[in-house]
Fold this protein.
Amino acid sequence: MCSPCSDAAARDTLDLHTGWQLYHPKLQRWIPATVPGVVQQDLIRQGLLPDPGYRTNEDSVQWVSELDWTYRLRFALSARQLAQPSQRLYFGGLDTFAEVWLNGQRILTSSNMYLEHELEVKGLLRRDNVLELRFASPTRAALPRYEASGINYPADNDHAPIHLSVFTRKAPYHYGWDWGERLLTLGPWRAVQLRLGAKEHFAGRPYLSYHPEAKGRELQLRLRPEDIAAPADTRLSYTLIDPQGREVYHREGRLADFLPQAGQPFTHSLPNPQLWWPRGMGEQARYTMRLELRRRGERQPLDSYTTRVGLRTLELRREADSLGRSFTFVVNGVPFFAKGANYIPGTLMLPTRSDAQLVQLFEDMRRSHFNMLRIWGGGVYESDRFYELADRYGILIWQDFMFACTPYPADSAFLEEVRQEVVQNVQRLRQHPSIATWCGNNEIAEALKYWGWQRKYPKETFERFERDYARLFRQLIPELLSEHDPLRPYIESSPDTANWGRPASLGLGESHYWGVWYGREPFEILRERMPRFMSEFGVQSFPMPSSIRRFAREEDYDLESPVMRSHQKSSIGNDVILHYIRQEYPEPQDFEDFVYASQVMQGRGIALGIKAQRAAAPRCMGSLYWQLNDAWPAISWSGIDYWGAWKGLQYQAARAFAPYTILPSRDGRRLSIVWDEQPEGERRVRLEAERFAFDGRGEASRPWSRELSLSGRSGVLELDVPLEDFLPDEATRRQHGISYRLSAGSELLTEELYYALPPKELELPAYAQPERCELVRAADGSHYTLLLRSDRLLRDVYIDTGSPELQPEENFLDLLPQRQYRIRILPRAGAATPLPPILPLRLKALNPQR
C-alpha cells in the first residue's frame, strides 16, 4: 500500500475531505458530514447528539451504534483527470464494518478498522461521481460471529452482556474499559483520497535497514517486486540525503537492478553514518531517502516515494543471570534505562484530535524527560504523524499489537484479518527509528495462567483459548515479523513472565505490578518488589478541578453522585483512592479535599516507585507507569487528564525522571543519587544538606556537604547520611525536614526534601497565603510569571489557574520558608492568545486551615 505521505510527482492526489453528507436513518434526511470523521462527531456538530463525556450522557448516545449509517460524496473530474492511466481510491481507515460503492457499484467490503485500502477504479469514474460509504452497526454485524462461536469470551472490559469486541478488529477500548466509557464509533476515521497518475507507481513501502557490523557499515534497500507497479525495465533513481541536506549516495538504473538478487537485497556502504539516538542520549539524526520511477529517456518522474530514515541498532537483552532473566533495551550498543509511561488513545472519537494537541503531547513527554512510550494493545495503531513526532523527539515506541485482556478466536477468517492488519501496520511503521519493539498483546498470557478462566469455562473451551493463543501470538505474528521486520525484537505478551502476586517471579523479565492498587499494598513496597523492567504500575486520582468543571455541575461534586459514579469505571476505585490517602495524608473534609489529596497521593506514590526503580539499575532497567493520558473525562490512573492538564502525577514523574534525582531511604539514613544523560567521563559534584523548620523560625543545623564524583553517562551512587545530626529526636522530626541539594559548580542539578514522617504525622503550620503572591503578565501576552514567597513551609502547593489550557511549569511543590519562587504559566494547545490581562489563581496546600 503506497504511503499517503509519499511525494506526488506526475501523480495528482485529490483529498476527498469536503462536501460529504451523512444519512440520518431516524430523521430520514442527509446532514453535513466531515471526513475524516465518525458519525457521533457529526451528530454532535449538528446538535443532534449530546456530548458523550458530559455528566451522565453516556447512556443516551448508545443508540447510534445500533443503526446503519451512510456517507455520500458527489464529486466531479475534469477530462484531463479522467484520462490519467491509473485512478486509485485510497481509504486510510474505515471504522469498522463498511461497504464502499462508487457510481452504484460495490467496490470494497471491509471489517477491520486497522486496514487501509487502495483500489484501482479506472473505468468506473465519470465526469460526475457518487461515492458512498455504508457503515453497518458494529454490534449487529458482529453478532453472527458470536453466534457461530458459541462462546461469550471473558472480555470483561466490554461493557455489554455479550462480549462482541473479541470478534471485531475494532479498537477494544471503544467497547468500554475500567477507565473508559463505551462509545462504538462508525465512519471514515482516516483520509480518503483519489490518486491519479501513471500506471507505474509505488504500491508498497520500501525501507532501508542499517547493518553496522558489515564492512563499510552497510545499508540495505528492502524493495520487493510487489512494492512497485511497473515493468522491470522501468528506471529507478535512489538518492540518500544526510541530516544536513547533503547528498551522500545516488544511483540510477533499471528497476530489476534494485530488486533482490538470489534473495539478497540491494546493498551499499555508508562510512561514518550519523546515528539516531533516543532523547537524552544524543541527536535524532535522520536521513532522507528518495526513490523515483522514470521511463527510459524521460526526466519527469512517473511517481516518487520519500521517507525519513534514522540509522540505529536496537536490541532487547533477555539473558539468564544470577537474578533470573534480564530485560534491557540497548541502542547503538549502549544499554539504557527506559523512562516513560503507557499511552492510550487520546480520545474516543479519534478524528477529533488536532495536530496541535498531538504536538503538545510530545512536548509534555519531552518536559517529563521521557525516552520511551508504550502504545497499549487495547487502542489503535497511531497515525503516521504520531510516529514522525516520536522520531523527531527521540521517544522510543514499545508497540503492542491491538489485543488486550481476553482470549481471541483463531479461525481461518479471523487469522486472515489479523495477517493483513499485521503486515500493513508493520510495513507502515518499520522505517521509524522510534519503533523499539513489537509486543503481541497486553496481559493475555498472564490472564490464561492466573485469572481463573480455567474454573469459569468448560475444559474444552479453555483448551481452545490456549490453542488459539498459540496460533496468534506464537505462530502467526512472529512468522510475519520474521518476514517483514526481522531486525526488531518481539515480546509475545506483556508481562512476559513475572506476576505481581508471585514476588519470586519478579526476577524474570518485565512486570505489571498491581500489588499497589489491586493488592492495596503500601507505596513503600515498591522499594522491595523490584522487577527487571516495570512496564505497568499505577494508582488512580481524580482529574484537575478545572477539568471536573467541564464535565460536571456543582451539584455533582460528591463521590456518590450519579455523575461521579459514571466517570469512575473501576468498581473499587474511590475506595482504593481513599485507602491510600488515609495511609499518609489527613482525612479529606469534603469533595474538593478528596480531589486534591488524590492527586498529591498519586503523584508522590508513583514518583517513589520511579525513583526506586531507577536506583535499582542495572537490576531494573525501565519504568513505564500506567498511564500517561485519558480518552475521555475520567477518574483514572493518568498523569495528564482528558483536557490536557497536568495532574500532580505528571509533575512528580517529570522530577523523578529528571537527569539527576535523589532517593532517601525509608529511614533517611542513606541516599541514592541517580543520574543519566550525563556527558561521558567524570563529573565532580557537591551534595549539601541543611535542616529547615516548618514554621520558618527554627535553628539551622550544622552545615553538611560532600564532594562526590559521578562517572559515566548513567549510574547510581549510595552514601550514608548522619540523620541524627539533623533530626535527633521525635519532636524535631515532627517540625523539621532536610533539604538536599546536588550541584556542579553554580548549576543546581536537583533538590530533594526529606520528611521523616508521613504528612498526617507532621506538625505543619496552619495555611497562610504566601507573603508574596504576585502574578505578572508578559508584555506580549505570551505567558504569566507567578512570584511566590512564604514565611512558612507550605506542603504540596497546588496552583489552580482555573483552566486546563494554562499550565504552571511547576506545580504540586513544597514552598520552603523565605525562599523566592518564580514560576511561569504557559498556554497549552487550544489556549486563546494573547492571554487575558487577569488570571484568577487559587492556591491549596496540605497545611491545616485555620
Summary: The longest helix spans residues 459-484. The radius of gyration is 29 Å. The mean pLDDT is 95.
